[in-house]
Design a protein that fits this description.
mainly alpha; two-stranded antiparallel sheet; globular; 251 residues; 9 helices
Amino acid sequence: MAVFVALGAFLMTLFGGWTAQRVTDRRHLVLGVAGGLMLGAAGLDLLPEAMAAAGHEVFGVPQALLLFVGGFLVAHVVERTLAARHAAHGAYDGTQDRARNGHEHRVPRVGMAVAAAMVGHSLMDGIAIGAAFQAGDGMGVTVALAVISHDFADGFNTYTVTSLYGNERRKALAMLGAAALAPVVGAASTTLFTLPPELLGSYLGFFAGVLVYLAAAEILPEAHHRHPAHSTLLCTVGGVAFIWLVTGVAE
């Protein structure tokens, strides 16, 4: 079941990459919904489940909450490290303009390294889907919705960052294909093992922290960057409300 559901992540990643080649004016609405789904899944389903399975305290703080904060911090450190590498190679401070004028040469290997990190992230998404289905079908569906919704952004960014640094189109498509297959491989790997309840709860808490960071620091700011519209806000609220509905029905 988890592998079958992960095919949705495969298709959504490819769709994100396809959209990156044909950017439309409605992308901000899709990202707004994706951010809402991710926030809803993390706060309304993943975290409560993690607390139930791994709620014993460590120095006065529930283990699941510690891992939630840990997931947030790990995602932040990884993102900031990659950002520092981008800056070192001129990815910021007006690089696009300088590149157009021939004053800046971008390093293709940087784009490939960032894309490879995104593939690794997608692999962990698949493992999260499989682990969630081990906790129950309702949990699995909720996590799958969150993963599938943000895989649009993963596909979009994988293709964009690979080509942005001067890599050939075939390499960008190859990295997009790897990012699309990664969730399926990750979900399939969970058929080979079963996580103990406490370990499963710990992982779900950690993954909830990662989701909140991606939604708050990446997806939603990107959604509002060029289109700070009320419609985008409504899409985000709608995404959270949808997860609340799904969670309620699953219970």
